[in-house]
Amino acid sequence: MAESSSATSIRVDQRAVARVVRGIPASDGAGVRLNRVIGQPGFSELDPFLLLDEFRSDNPGDYIAGFPEHPHRGFETVTYLIAGRVRHEDNKGHKGLLTPGSVQWMTAGRGIVHSEMPEQENGLLQGFQLWVNLPRRSKMTEPRYQEYAPGEIPEAVLGNGVRARVIAGGFADKIGPIDAVATAPLYLDLTLPAESKVDVPIPRGHAAFGYVFEGTASVGSAGTTVPKGTLAVLSDGDNLVLRADGSAARLLVVAGKPLGEPVARYGPFVMSSEAEIHQAIGDFQAGRL
Known about the structure:
Layout: E1 17-22, E2 24-28, E3 32-38, E4 49-57, E5 67-72, E6 75-83, E7 86-90, E8 95-98, E9 103-107, E10 112-118, E11 125-133, E12 144-148, E13 155-157, E14 163-168, E15 170-171, E16 174-175, E17 186-192, E18 196-201, E19 207-219, E20 224-227, E21 230-234, E22 239-244, E23 249-256, E24 264-266, E25 269-271, H1 274-285
């Protein structure tokens, strides 16, 4: 008798929208106006993500003063520029220019003092800064930069016109250039034409969110409507369904492995205890960063 074969089905759990968070107006640096999404009252973090700011203005008064010299210790900052030009420089001798579509993933580690200043006097400046926590074992690592020009970010173009810039992690056979082992991040910039749909695999167990910055998107298994300037915190699962119905949409999809560790933070320092925060302040004041 011939042996019968049976296909093994693999269950895919769809992520849903667990919470919707609107950004709030904020100011940082030397008066740069921002839309603060993560890091606001009532939504201080989404482990391992500590902050998400969107800056977008064509009024130079909103951004021209920039972010003069300031310190960081204990986490990573991710700057992704959509429009405009930003010059950065630090006390370790590193400097560079961010242009539209470029990304800088800076691991502050044991400490760095840097500045981020607009290199323009008019026109649109738009982009994002994300803060990603580091595990306690890595907080005092040597600082490093991963910086990539627009042409170095792989882009996937699907048959239905959906486009995805893959900054970190993998999507549609493209692998992003960022190496961040501790949180194994996924960072996508997705553009959906009107009446399009896309499935985005996300590692189970990763904390994840979608932030819509153009148009309106339908997010998750229940098709939650998420308008521009709004973040959707996602439930756990293996896959995220996104749709753009009557008009196009553009959004970030970001995910990372939670660290599950204590977080002590004070301004630009993020450590694991209050004692470590006091040490960071003392080291900065003594010029040891």
